[in-house]
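User: My collaborator and I are trying to settle a disagreement about how two of our proteins should look. Neither of us wants to argue from intuition anymore, so we agreed to look at predicted structures for both before our next call. Could you fold the first one, then the second, and keep them clearly separated?

Assistant: That sounds like a sensible way to settle it. I'll keep them separate. The first protein:
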Amino acid sequence: MDEARIAELLEPFLSDNSRPTAVLSSAQIRLISMYIDLLLRWNDRVNLTAIRAPEEIVTRHFGESIFAARQLFPLPGVEAGATAHVIDVGSGAGFPGLPVKIWAPHLRLTLIESNQKKATFLREVVRHLGLANVDVFGARAETYLGSRGDVVMFRAVEQFESVLLNAAGLVRPGGCLAVMVGRSQLDRCRKLLPGFQWKYPISLPISSNRCLIIGSNEPR
């Protein structure tokens, strides 16, 4: 996909009233372009995403994921120079995890995806883009026994409540859970995880009802 058009479509996600306008490097835009081309080719054979229009892929998948990354990093509570561990639960075609990695290359990223065809695609993206320090766990989140995350992320999915609880169990004490959902699901987040300290939801650009809500797993 044309890199100049990608940069143009991502502009609304790189500026907001709460922080300085961000800039993606030409190398980052190039990685996104390569990722989109690979996604479109695979989507003809494997149902990776219902969104098939390239420009909507840029805004819904890459834009919203990078917007979330801007709210999260640099991460409070992680020492300067340390490598934060991000876990993306139910990663699907790699969102939000892989765009977050493109935004913040220093992160350690674990993608959890139980669908084996999608997990194979994720490994191919990681290889094709030359991304380091990325693991793909091709099984269900409740069977993951690796280290817990400084940040655990997921987008609205089927079986939302069970995924929410599984994701929360992967957050280290003092870490946070970042959920991209419709506003109708916000109350369920708060009620199902009353032990988390929830920040005020942040509206996602170019959306009337989707938002990002972040909850801290504060030790008690």
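The second protein, kept apart from the first:
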Amino acid sequence: MKPDRAIAAYRKMRTGPLWRLLAADKGPVVIGLLQSLLFDSDRTLPASVFYERLGHELDNLRDQNQDFPLTSRVYASNWLAEGYIERSFPVGAPEEQFELPTSTIDAIRFVSGMAQPHSAATESRLSLVIDALVRLAEETDTDTTRRIEALETEKARIDKQIRLIQRGQMRVLSNELATERVNEIISLVEGLTGDFRRVRDRFAELNRDIREKLLDSEGRRGEILSALFEGVDLILDSPAGRSFDAFWRLLTDQEQSAALDQAIEGVVGREFFQGTDQKSRRTLLRLTRTLLDESAVVQESSRTFSTNLRQFVQSRQYLEHRRITALLKETNRVALDVKEKVKLTDDFTTLTLTSSLIRSHSQCKTLFQPDLHTPGESMDDGNPLLCDLENLKRMINQSEINFGELRENIRSVLHEQVQASIGQILEKHPATQGLGSIVGLLVLARRGGTAFGLKSPTKIDKPAVDLPKFEEPVGWVGEDGVQRTARIPIYYFVRERLQHLDK
């Protein structure tokens, strides 16, 4: 890169929150506090909890004679304005939540990495590089002869290792080298979880770009509108969306997931693993759950952006926004013309101010009076009904979902495998209450599972052949004896979150 281009890029970065945080006078304190509150353990905190914990940490710093005269709310407001933290209000949440943006996460990783640098050169890092290059060379080779020779060489190497093991000459990594490789894996995992936030940011940028193109009088507005009206998901169809789709398919692959869990269980049981630090052990033990949870956040963000964007177009809201944009441009143009005619040195200028008329409810002509709308006749007692226990049991079965049975079905399936979707649960335990069992499983999945659906449940008459992304078919037999099928979003129950089903 030429120096002028590099200088221009660095000047732009200098105005961003990452560089400002690193260069701030209180940067070490801010980074340390945010790392402790929103990075090391919790990645999101409700506002009340964040204020309380931040206030406690500030009190500790004041006890050490450090100058922090403001309250936790004021500091949080300042950090929010600087872009060091982000605030959101998730649907259904009782209060707003705080989390770290990508720039602050990068700053924390950079500073903590400098504080605890890697060794100059390690065998495990070199092995990762060599393995990655060898695999890249093999998988991009189009020569069939070389591919076969490489496989034959690998086969001969494996056969040699088998013979050595049979002779009792098995090579086992030392505890020091094994611990070193664990640290490298943890470093890769932390970088991977940081990538999830970058994908979310990229989806947000795509959402803004598409909306700007819709409001702009020029550009590819017609093509975007046509695609949205045809139901094309422009967010997931983007390069970032396709890349994340491939990642998610690999993560939820049954064979890959089983191999990952088996490998984690094997490593956890080794002697060297007990010598690693507590953070590394916790990260590796919660690896599967962390990846699923982070993926769920990205999927929810993508689903929200896609749904809101489609509603924005189908409800014709973009037409009103476009009209307002045109009025703002016209206002700016008129203001520029007026600027040349009206000078600051003029005696006076009269402007007509806009206002709205505010009236109270007491000014309404007619108020609703409940006494005038009550029925005049008294209510008679109804005849008591005969109670039949069988009919009562049948009525309860129709009106109440048997969650106890559904929980036992989920536990029995997860006893045999580490994760299972609703469709896999129903394959081994059919819906005894018909549609009620499907609804009950969805309720339990929202409570103790991980959702990756992109659409609402849709009733269909025939099983689907080509299902949309992240959906699966489920079936049940109704009271009329007719087999019915529907498509629902994929929900995964995982063994680590079984305790959440009882809440």
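Some points you might bring to the call about the second protein. The beta strands are 44-46, 86-88, 97-99, 419-421, 450-451, 458-460, 471-477, 483-489, 491-494. The longest strand covers residues 471-477.
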